[in-house]
Amino acid sequence: MSEKKFKRTLVTTALPYANGPVHIGHLAGVYVPADIYVRYLRQKGEEVLMVGGSDEHGVPITIKAMKEGVTPQDIVDRYHNIIKKSFEEFGIKFDVYSRTTSETHHKMASDFFKTLYDKGEFIEQTTQQYYDEESNQFLADRYIIGTCPHCKNEKAYGDQCEACGTTLGPMELINPRSTISGRPLVLRETKHWYLPLDKHESWLRQWILEGHKEWKSNVYGQCKSWLDMGLQPRAVSRDLNWGIPLPIDGADGKVLYVWFDAPIGYISNTKELLPDDWEKWWKDPESRMIHFIGKDNIVFHCIVFPAMLKAHGGYNLPDNVPANEFLNLEGDKISTSRNWAVWLNEYLEDFPGKQDVLRYVLTANAPETKDNDFTWKDFQARNNNELVAIYGNFVNRAMVLTHKYFSGKVPQAGSLADIDNAAISEFVSYKAEVERLLAAFRFRDAQKEVMNMARVGNKYLADTEPWKLIKTDEARVATIMNVCLQFAANLSIAFEAFLPFSSEKLRGMLNIENFGWDRLGAMDLMPVGHELNAAELLFEKIDDEAVAAQVQKLNDKKKANEAAAHTVEPIAPTIDFADFEKLDIRVGRVLECSRVPKADKLLQFKIDDGLGGRTIVSGIAKHYNPEDLVGKSVCFIANLAPRKLKGIESQGMILSAEDADGRLVVTTTLDTVAAGSQVK
């Protein structure tokens, strides 16, 4: 966070795409951390606004509508309501959660474009693009399929051949056809408007690389990589009948590209909530803006949207963009198309009333600087061993013993012993560290420190053993129970941002108000004689059967996907063994790996092939981080004719396997073998 003090904070959350429900990856990456931060600021009494909404335009929605025989509006209406309800049920507390099909948004986005257009901030280009005459639309590259000119794979996409890894343009495909209709395509001229990001590169480099070195390393690093590769103009319009029409002459059939339209939704949703007061959140220098997003949106929120705001003029730029990496599920990437996910609506059906358990586990496993993994066994262990055995156990024993020994009323504390003072001092000391971690957007570590406060209470109660002292020293027991109850009341404050449902339940048991953050650490939250309500279990154990059922559900999904995958791709035509023998497949060790400038799908490898080394370029950048591949042994075809990709001579092809979801997995060896070994 910058050192400047602000009067208010505007928090935005990535707009979920309204063509499906939300899953735990969405919660862990964006919405739980954003909600924790906003709740914390509210506890401190700060002026804060949390803005969200559904992203409802774009080609995938039109395709889903065509497949189902309904309108795009039917699709977005369905999923907007499902998504909004899921957030509400999980306690994600937006001040406004709207949508990009709203009237307010359409006008705001249209006016935003017109302002930039009138200022001459766009460039116009007329190009030839493929058109599907049956579905009556120009197609995005990913919806064009054809034969790869390099390896002859007949199912290469218009942006990449995933068989040989070559980055392609749709014009390079042989016999291009539509993935929507399956029909051959024709070329038609079309004009579009582009935002020249290269024009903004100089100030963006200074603003980010010099002005925001405090940003998270994963965010700063990705921004630097994009800037170092050189920014290119990006189209802000496209040919489509679903979206916001361009408000200029000569643009019939053109709509705003969804990447341009969606972030303006943050502004329009704020205006929808505060029609007369929205500008103070967006334009007042005393307001700061924080974007909570996943790593796939870093470039849009750190480079593209700031360029749009700067070009428009008058808007604040984001103060911080604490983007998270991705959450995996049981060791595999979450995939909506493969149904490999834990959907929030299904979770609530299987674990009613346990929203905080999932919030706690997702925060404990938050992918803050690298991808992390969610497993059902870990979910069970954290619930049973931490929420139940530490926090819940302490609160329950404090409540039960107070009801048993003092008729459910807060007893009078006498003079404090050394053990009492030591426990109180340790308990209170965590507050400053929690504040520091939350200010740095380190929610996983902050929650761990709050749980340590509960550990202090649990240990204090175990060490003082009031159940043994009650027969001989009731006054001493009264002091112990007073301290324990004050600890419990403090925990309702400390956990409020992380576990709001449990904090509300605890306040109900203790019969107390919702104290602000400034009261955390006070040992007089409940006066002597204050009457408690009945004790309840704050958390319940989750048994093996419940977890086994969830694992079985995932295994069933995996089997269904594997069965589907086996039926999708038929075996290629039979070849002679002599043809196979022509391929020289070898094992090489990756010495270096880096992204290819101005080619976001390509990685450049320096391979130890046992013969002096070689360079190979492979189109797997969407599936791997370069640093993760260094030191790996990979299989590659060594005797392919060299070819140039983005000016780099590639001397071979790294072998990868493609799963049903289109994910590429590099082929490696089970055991270590010498570089240059032949695969036979």
Q: How much of the residues is beta strand, in percent?
A: 15-25%
What class would the helix/strand composition place it in?
alpha+beta
How many extended strands? 25
Shape: globular
Task: Briefly summarize what is shown.
With about 675 residues, the chain is an alpha+beta fold. The protein contains 20 helices and 25 strands.
Describe the protein in words.
The protein has 680 residues and is α+β, with helices and mostly antiparallel strands. It contains 20 helices and 25 strands. The strands form eight sheets. The protein has a five-stranded antiparallel beta sheet. Strand 14 (327-329) and strand 15 (332-333) form a beta hairpin. The longest helix has 31 residues, at 376-406.
